[in-house]
Design a protein that fits this description.
heterodimer, A: mainly alpha, 2 domains, 5 helices, B: mainly alpha, about 0% strand, elongated
């Protein structure tokens, strides 16, 4: 579902088909099949598609990606302010969807890298593997075991526990 | 040739009569449809090109099944075909929207965030704006929050008035002191 428009990340190398000279006088049968395909399939389909696009170009209209304003977080809401809770919850859900899509895109990039490299994937895709590991770990830390009823409050509590654990570990490490 | 067919027909009838008596005599099941080769029938079957030997095939009725399937197809296509034609028309002649960056200083309407023209139409004419839905939900939450506050205040007031006894609640009407008959306590020797 996410369409990754950053083609640079995929780094498809240019094809290196060598130009060779003819050594036989037998014509290449592939050209015959190419011309047949061109006349039987390609030309009608392209004609129909371009006709459709001409019809659609008469009245073009656009759609946009909605940008939401940032509202105060759940940690900035006063107790009992249910409206603030509601807005923070909506914002947290949108952020969780965005983070899920980010992880999905990075996973697709790793898949594309593996497809591209073929047998060299273990060496050449190491950066993508590392990036995916970091992103997945961060996602798991933030949204990980909240369960299906996870909301902004349980996520905040999880963050609080994480910070307490870190503080305890630092105190034990320093003492 | 006509005599030939008459001969065949007579032979088949004789064979059938023999088979009927044989079936009655030996109680054999007459369930051999199609390839019913009676013993003793010597009528040669001409496998001609039109129908072969015409058989009366006995099978269960498919009337109800075909009627059901015909009705199903009819009622599905009755609205299905116009809807399919309409959707094809929309997809070919109107087409989907293109993704664009939001221009400077332009606030898109709430239906301009959808791609397909039918989704845009539904969002524009049938549904409320998501901002309006958001505000409706927040209004509901606000009313419930105020109700909750008032209920808590009422419970507090009840508790305090019961405890302190200085409020208008928990005051009970007692009879007037002029109505009390003190004659039983008026002399010490009763």
């Amino acid at each position: 579902m996410p369409e990754d428009k950053d083609w640079e990340a995929y780094k498809v190398p240019p094809t290196r088909t060598p130009v060779s000279e003819r050594i036989t006088s037998v014509p290449n049968p592939v050209t015959f099949f190419q011309t047949v395909f061109n006349y039987v399939v390609d030309t009608p389909v392209t004609f129909v598609r371009e006709w459709i696009e001409r019809q659609q170009a008469k009245n073009k209209f656009y759609y946009y990606h909605q940008k939401f304003r940032r509202v105060p977080d759940l940690s900035e809401c006063l107790e009992g302010d249910y409206l603030c809770f509601f807005e923070a919850e909506a914002q947290w859900r949108r952020d969780r969807l965005v983070d899920t899509e980010i992880v999905e895109i990075i996973r697709e990039r790793l898949g594309a890298c593996k497809q591209r490299e073929g047998p060299n994937e273990f060496q050449n895709c190491a950066k993508e593997v590392e990036l995916l590991a970091q992103v997945t770990k961060a996602y798991q830390d933030r949204y990980g075991d909240l369960g299906v009823h996870g909301n902004a409050r349980t996520c905040l509590m999880k963050q609080k526990h994480r910070m307490m654990e870190e503080r305890k570990a630092k105190a034990e490490a320093s003492s | 040739m006509a005599a030939m067919s008459l001969l065949l027909r007579a032979a088949a009838a004789w064979g059938a009569r023999r088979a009927a008596s044989g079936a009655v005599g030996s109680a054999r099941l007459p369930g051999l449809a199609g390839a019913a080769r009676l013993p003793g029938t010597l009528a040669p079957v001409r496998h001609s090109s039109d129908h072969g030997k015409r058989m009366f095939i006995i099978k269960a009725t498919s009337f109800y099944d075909t009627r059901f399937l015909n009705l199903l197809r009819f009622y599905i296509f009755l609205t299905g075909i116009p809807v399919a034609l309409f959707i094809t028309y929309v997809n070919i002649f109107i087409g989907e929207a293109e993704l664009a960056e939001i221009p400077e200083g332009y606030v898109p309407e709430y239906w301009e965030y959808y791609k397909h023209p039918i989704s845009r139409w539904i969002a524009r004419y049938l549904l409320d704006a998501p901002e309006k839905d958001y505000e409706k939900e927040m209004a509901l939450l606000d009313v419930e929050a105020k109700k909750k506050e008032l209920r808590l205040l009422e419970l507090d007031a009840r508790r305090l008035m019961r405890h302190r006894g200085d409020g208008p609640w928990y005051h009970y009407e007692t009879p007037d002191k002029n109505l009390v008959d003190n004659s039983m306590k008026s002399t010490p020797d009763n």
